[in-house]
Amino acid sequence: MTDFTLNQNISGARPIEPASRPNLDKGFNPLTMILFFAVLAGGVLFVAYSIYADVAATGTRVTSYLPYFLLFVALMIALGFEFVNGFHDTANAVATVIYTHSLKPEIAVMWSGLFNFLGVLFSSGAVAFGIVSLLPVELILQVGSSAGFAMVFALLIAAIIWNLGTWWLGLPASSSHTLIGSIIGVGIANALMRGRDGTSGVDWTKATEIGYALLLSPLFGFVCAAILLLVLKFLVRNKALYEAPDGAKAPPLWIRGILIATCTGVSFAHGSNDGQKGMGLIMLVLIGTVPTAYALNRALPESRIEQFQKTSVAASNVIAAKGAGHSIIGDPRPVVTQYVAARKISEGTYPALSVLVKDVGNQVRTYGSLDKVPAEKVGNTRNDMYLASEAIRFLMKDKENDLSKDEIATLNAYKGSLDAATKFIPDWVKIAVAIALGLGTMVGWKRIVVTVGEKIGKTHLTYAQGASAELVAAGTIGAADIFGLPVSTTHVLSSGVAGTMAANGSGLQMATIRNLLMAWVLTLPCAIALSAALYFVFASIF
């Protein structure tokens, strides 16, 4: 605890005491801990009941409990990742309100946990499936197989191990970086095990797009937070805003309100973006183990089915015209799968895709609605839809596709119909992830909070610095959520704090900055190596 200056000045006015370190060692009230474990137990029971209800609604007869055991293990690992993500990343959101004495630490983490919870519930789902699209298509199509379980276990356990390691060292490393590195590692390992070049196991176009978001977001956070602080100094001349806290006193009410509002915004944005990363993986687990209930969106309204039929016919005509003069004998799926894996158009690509699109349209037309697809056919129908959607996605990006704007619009509409049928997230999955992320916020936050609050700048965080960093972080993460891109709350906010320190002339603790940069640089290769090694191990076990 910083010693206070007790001497008075010549005029007799009470001097401003040096900002004191917040009390981070106060434990939670026993009643709070009871409530914590009650919510945790309630969440587990809610997940179990939801799965039971969804499976019962399909009329499926349970003949073996092994898939449900694997499902339970996989779900606990996936939710465990979100729990770790909660206390690893969300500590960044509360550091500013804690170190400006705007909220007591125990109140701050509970408040942040609540808005993490709400952020997950109101998320769009776009980030979830952006993450999933990085995975090798052959593993997604066989997600219920041993290779599929090896994939999910390897990437999630690798991400958890790295997150826990960096948390233990108090380093604000990125959970987004970690998860994407783990996915890339699985893709490379899977390609090597199949005798292919390791680079063929990853959608590098999508990986590059996400990589730019992860790379540029902290630079954006640093620069924008610095500029925002300078603009504030020019426009708002209230001296109190640019001073460190007076001892352990709470700031004036209006400043306190701004800081709590920015903390709330970052927490909500973090939940809406980071919470989705586990959702997509949970959906893969559900599709692989209980396809009858989760492979297809059984709640899709009849109007969307009618729209699907129209877009299917239109897309089929476009693709058939491009494949005119060529034909394919036998199953078209291997040819389409090969195109999605290699992303190289051959003379068989359009004919095979045309046959697949017509086949999917016939299946939906035959059954009338997705909830009437027979249990034994659900997995195959879903795989056909997913494969067609991925093939069309790559075709529209391929410079060799020779598609007009109108043809691309037609294919894009059809892809939207396919995605509505296959890329959905049940409400209970959102609630389960929200609980895991929200509860995780309340545990283990101290290590990262200390780093952000004490070890980035050489002087104590001022009110304006905290508000500037939080505003930029909330805006950046919210924008990334709209565009379906994962960004790191950790990197954006910690770089924002560093930017305000630089703009304020406060100076930076270069040892901490060096460690942050090391974690930033090493996270991706370490996660790739760790998940690849675990995939080799799990693939040989399952």
Explain what this protein looks like in three dimensions.
The protein is mainly alpha-helical. The chain is 72% helix and 0% strand. It contains 21 helices and no strands. Helix 14 packs antiparallel against helix 15. The longest helix is centred in the middle third of the chain and has 37 residues. It is globular.
Concise structural overview:
This protein has 542 residues and is an all-alpha fold. The chain has 21 helices and no strands.
Tally of helical runs: 21
- Binned strand content: under 5%
Q: What would the average pLDDT be, to the nearest integer?
A: 81
Low-confidence segments: 1-16
Q: Biggest β-sheet: count, sense, barrel?
A: none
Number of strands: 0
Radius of gyration: 26 Å
Q: By helix and strand content, what is the structural category?
A: mainly alpha
First-residue to last-residue Cα separation = 53 Å
Please provide the ordered H/E string of secondary-structure elements. Answer: HHHHHHHHHHHHHHHHHHHHH
Task: Map the helices and strands.
Layout: H1 30-58, H2 66-89, H3 91-99, H4 105-121, H5 126-132, H6 137-141, H7 146-168, H8 175-193, H9 204-235, H10 253-289, H11 291-294, H12 302-322, H13 333-342, H14 349-367, H15 375-397, H16 405-422, H17 427-441, H18 446-454, H19 463-482, H20 489-504, H21 510-541
